[in-house]
Amino acid sequence: MKPLNFRNNLKNLILKLPIPSGNIFCFLFNLITFFFKGSDFISYQDNYYHIKKKNWKFYYKKQGAYAYLAGLEKRSEDLKKAYLIENINFYDNDLIIDCGANNGDFYLCFKKKIKYVGIEPSPIVYETLKHNVGKQITYNKALWKSSDEILDFYLKDEGGDSSIIPIKDCKKKISISTITLDQIIENINSHVKLIKIEAEGSEPEVLEGLRLYSEKVSYITIDVSFERGEDSKSTLIECSNLLFEKNFRLLNFAIHKSRLTIIAKNKLKDKNI
Length: 273
Prior knowledge:
2 domains; globular; 273 residues; 13 strands; Rossmann fold; single chain; alpha/beta
């Protein structure tokens, strides 16, 4: 068996078991990392787990084991493949909007000095996002089809499954202020190279909030997996129809590690950009 496959199988086994906290979790995480000759070791400080090499931190053990046990470089490679951006050329100062940013992992995908905007509704996860992306722009709001609403937000942060749509096994419900993609683009007043949307089932509502400035966007990549509501429905059809209405054409779709994604390009930007 290849080492990477073995590590993935080991990681999946760990995720099914009770995960100890604090320094014990760090010891087990670092032992596996050392065994596979990795270098992304972690420490525990002020209730957060810190990846020393990258000045990166996370709060939830399950999410940390899933995302980082194979290392940050592997995490970025997985995300580039999952969101179908491997064949897009990115340049310094390209603007990326990350909807449902979580810890900011999508930021790891870009070697160039991009401009990044991350939106994360969960208060605890938002603190890790702010730390991880430094001086980039962040919002502790929920993307929606209208701004300045106060809506219920259902927390299930351990696996990155929180949603504005009611979900099963919700751990806590909070109130959150909403913002639209239009409002964000207006605030930035810039062309947008790529929007990535991962909203745990509310992707159609996020897209509905892009009414005025869709012509300023070159690419949109969306996680349309089976995550909407208690019935766990896919948002593939709704998102595809909305993209068509907004003058985008679908370029590709993929299933990567149970994640279903699509990517579309603005028809007005059909030159090589």
